[in-house]
Specification:
The complex is a heterodimer of chains A (about 180) and B (about 525).
Chain A (H helix, E strand, L loop, with lengths): L7 H13 L2 E4 L2 E6 L4 E4 L5 H14 L7 H17 L1 H18 L8 H11 L3 H15 L5 H4 L35
Antiparallel strand pairs in A: 1-2, 2-3
Helix pairs in contact in A: 2-3, 3-4, 3-6, 4-6
Chain B lengths: L11 E4 L3 H12 L4 E4 L14 H8 L6 E3 L4 H4 L27 H4 L1 H5 L14 H15 L14 H13 L4 E2 L38 H7 L3 E4 L3 E7 L5 E7 L5 E5 L2 E4 L2 H11 L24 E8 L15 E2 L15 E5 L4 H7 L7 H8 L4 E8 L8 E9 L5 E6 L4 H20 L4 E5 L34 E3 L14 H20 L4
The chains are: A mainly alpha (about 180), B alpha/beta (about 525).
The complex binds flavin-adenine dinucleotide and iron/sulfur cluster.
The site of iron/sulfur cluster has 14 residues of chain B, from loops.
Chain lengths: ~180, ~525
């Protein structure tokens, strides 16, 4: 939602750092780590470069400036989890990242945003692209922790529905007449 | 509840407990007729419903394998999900939104009224509005439809306010909170709508009519009903004379049973019903049951649909309250100056954030898409529902190689848009856009059709046996103790949401079956 979550300035000073320090490799284990929130998740399949690349990719696919990197990392973690039990999925992710770098003639992540977006457009529809994209759809928009950001209130029956909680509180347009919209009883 | 023996051949066996089957079961039981109601899905209760889109979908939707073909976009975006319908006691009346509109007089006479249309397999219904009026009245009373029987309309929610403001600015006249099978005040032992907003996930207050907690318990109370859930019918059997004699079904453990029957009524919705008739092919009926016309599975209709979502400077919170909260009915007329035959309705619609992300523009990504979702709380939305053309090659067929968990061929659903459908959809997109722009929209988005929620026509009624599968009572032309009791009997789609008509036809069919049984004709 527009007025909730971090404001834009807070976000800007926080995001650069967060993204830079996301993936830490220590004693061979790669983890997604967010010191500020205490969130971390070890990865089973993806290496440091792959997970960083996928993190960039998810944010470019569904950019929401005020959404913390942590939530995009949740998607990467989910991709890693799927890949840990399906060799073909793991291969597809690894090949996909390699292919992006090949298109970039180097490290895809280091290109400008415009260039990276163009390359994503070029691979749109490939199995790798779909694997990452479709995981974003559930990983981001079906993540209950993010619903407040979008202004979606989720389950309502347990709160007695919206009958007394604003189902008709819109006040910036004229009220429809009673014959079109009778009063609640 | 009755306990009917497998070898008892005096009962009516109904396949499917949704709008058609659930209603028919109750109507027959009320007349003292024994019914075995076989339902593939589980028997849940209101307490089981969840206000959470994906978990609810896994709980209620029909997820057995299906395939698709044709030029409709669903085949690309959701190749194994042609339809969004349910597998549970109560069928898709657990998911439905409740909009309950009568089909208009001229729509029953589509061929006469519209004339020949290239590529359309158009005929008139063998029945008229006049025939159905008394039954529509009974259905509206049974379902508690608002704005009928002195029942007040529902209060409009925020999504409706936006639609109303825009529609009125545009000059539309018939704009209101609709005729809904949702209690605006307590009625029939059920509560009034609490504006929960999860109508598609099973109504937690029971305000919305569903056969699950209206028709089916009422039928059980008569002592005539034997409801068997998790009972998936595989084949309909017939005797040497060609009359149907029973059904073969698999119970929840996969064990197969043969239930004898005096009459069999098929109400599995428009994909499963023709599939079952085709899967029941025998040496006597090599093309499937009731298929001498070759029309079983053909003329599949799904309504011309699409959605329009718009974002605004100020908040809307469209998801609060009834999902389908209002209607613009002005475009439901036949007026070829618009460039197409038939008409359409515009009805408010809202999806929660998880479904909005999945359906707004399937497959899409990038800034435009995420900006729209960023504005989710400022979004209003409507759904278009219009008459689509019956086409012979839009059809349900059996897959040549793929089998389901019971070893039965899975259905393939083929659909190509007719040019009339496309012209209508484009017109409706444009009008929807104008409505929201008139209300001050920042951006307007056209959303392609969802997997089909309205599935119709695949065992259609016809006056002539060669044109369709059943007569005006849903009795098949070929086999007089075999009936079609769901939306697959629709001759044409009309502009209106179909369920009120499905229920109406079921009530009328029950009267007919009872009379024919009495007269020993079946
Ligand atoms: C999200 C959504 C919103 C909707 N909103 C509206 C609306 O506002 N207004 C409206 O008029 N309509 C609406 N509909 C459509 C409405 O739900 C259907 O038109 C109606 O329920 C169809 O009735 P039916 O009897 O044909 O089939 P269903 O209600 O689908 O019932 C068929 C039943 O048969 C069972 N079955 C199938 N095959 C077998 C088998 N082989 N053996 C045993 N059982 C079997 C299925 O499990 C199912 O329970 C909506 C649908 C959806 C999905
Ligand atoms: S909005 Fe009304 S009809 Fe819809 S789920 Fe809630 S109580 Fe039921």
């Amino acid at each position: 939602m527009k007025n909730e979550g971090l404001n834009r300035r807070q976000f800007l000073c926080h995001s650069g750092k967060a993204l830079a320090g996301v993936v830490v490799a220590s004693s061979g284990v790669v983890s997604l780590v967010f010191p500020a929130t205490g969130w971390s998740a070890p990865l089973a399949v993806l290496d440091e470069h792959e997970s960083k690349t996928l993190l960039h990719m998810t944010r470019l696919l569904y950019p929401h400036d005020a959404v913390e990197d942590k939530f995009y990392a949740v998607v990467v973690k989910a991709l890693d989890t799927d890949a840990s039990t399906a060799e073909d999925k793991a291969q597809q992710l690894k090949e996909g990242v390699k292919n992006l770098d090949k298109l970039a003639n180097g490290n895809w992540r280091e290109l400008s945003t415009d260039k990276r977006n163009t390359m994503l457009k070029n691979i749109e529809g490939t199995a790798f692209f779909e694997q990452v994209r479709s995981k974003c759809i559930t990983g981001i928009y079906n993540n209950k922790e993010l619903w407040p950001h979008f202004g979606y209130e989720g389950a309502s029956a347990k709160h007695g529905g919206y009958i007394n909680r604003g189902f008709n509180d819109l006040d910036w347009l004229p009220e429809p007449p009673e014959e079109a919209s009778p009063k609640a009883r | 509840m009755a306990n009917i023996d497998f070898n008892d051949n005096t009962a009516v066996v109904i396949i499917g407990s949704g709008a058609g089957g659930g209603t028919l079961a109750n109507e027959l039981c009320q007349k003292g007729i024994k019914v075995v109601l076989l339902e593939a899905g589980k028997h849940l209760s209101i307490a089981d419903f969840v206000n959470d889109e994906w978990p609810s979908f896994s709980q209620l939707a029909w997820l057995d394998k299906r395939t698709t073909s044709g030029n409709w976009r669903v085949a690309k975006d959701f190749p194994n999900l042609p339809a969004w319908i349910c597998k549970t006691v109560g069928g898709t009346t657990t998911h439905w939104a409740g909009a309950s509109l009568r089909i208009q007089d001229h729509e029953f006479r589509a061929e006469t009224h519209y004339g020949k249309i290239d590529g359309a397999n158009l005929i008139d219904w063998p029945i008229t509005l006049n025939d159905l009026e008394p039954y529509y009245a009974r259905a509206e009373d049974k379902m508690g439809v608002t704005r009928t029987n002195g029942i007040p309309g529902l209060p409009g929610n925020n999504n409706f306010k936006v639609m109303y403001a825009g529609a009125k600015k545009l000059g539309y006249k018939e704009v209101h909170t609709g005729r809904m099978a949702i209690n605006s005040r307590p009625r029939d032992g059920r509560a009034a709508c609490q504006q929960i907003g999860f109508c598609f996930q099973g109504c937690k207050s029971g305000a919305k009519w569903s056969t699950l907690y209206t028709e089916i318990p009422a039928a059980e109370a008569t002592g005539q009903l034997d409801l068997r859930s998790e009972s998936h019918v595989l084949q309909i059997k017939h005797d040497a004379t060609g009359k149907v004699s029973g059904v073969l079904y698999a119970d929840k453990d996969g064990a197969q049973h043969l239930q004898q029957a005096r009459i069999v009524c098929v109400a599995g919705n428009s994909i499963e019903s023709p599939r079952l008739l085709l899967n029941s092919a025998s040496s006597l009926y090599p093309d499937g049951l009731a298929n001498s016309s070759g029309q079983v599975g053909r003329n599949y209709m799904r309504h011309t649909t699409g959605s329009v979502y718009a974002t605004f400077e100020k908040p809307v919170h469209m998801y609060r309250g009834t999902t389908m909260a209002g209607i613009i009915a002005d475009e439901n007329r036949h007026d070829t100056r618009r460039g197409f035959a038939g008409g359409y309705e515009m009805e408010t619609l809202s999806l929660g954030l998880p479904f909005m992300a999945a359906f707004l523009d399937p497959g899409s990504s990038g800034k435009k898409f995420s900006d729209a979702l960023e504005d989710y709380a400022h979004m209003a939305g409507m759904w278009i529902v219009g008459e689509d053309m019956p086409q012979e090659n839009n059809r349900v067929t059996l897959h040549a190689t793929e089998k389901d968990q019971h070893g039965q061929p899975v259905p393939n659903v083929h659909f190509d848009d007719h040019k009339n459908d496309i012209a209508m959809r484009n017109h409706a997109y444009q009008q929807g856009k104008l409505v929201y722009e008139a209300a001050g929209a920042k951006t307007v988005l056209e959303t392609p059709p969802y997997p089909s929620t309205h599935n119709l026509g695949t065992n259609r009624m016809s006056a002539k046996a060669g044109d369709g599968v059943c007569n005006g009572f849903g009795q098949t032309h070929d086999i007089k103790n075999l009936f079609i009791s769901d939306g697959s009997q629709f001759t044409t789609g009309a502009a209106e949401n179909p369920t009120l008509t499905i229920v109406t036809l079921a009530i009328r069919q029950a009267d007919y079956i009872a009379a024919e049984m009495n007269n020993k004709n079946i």
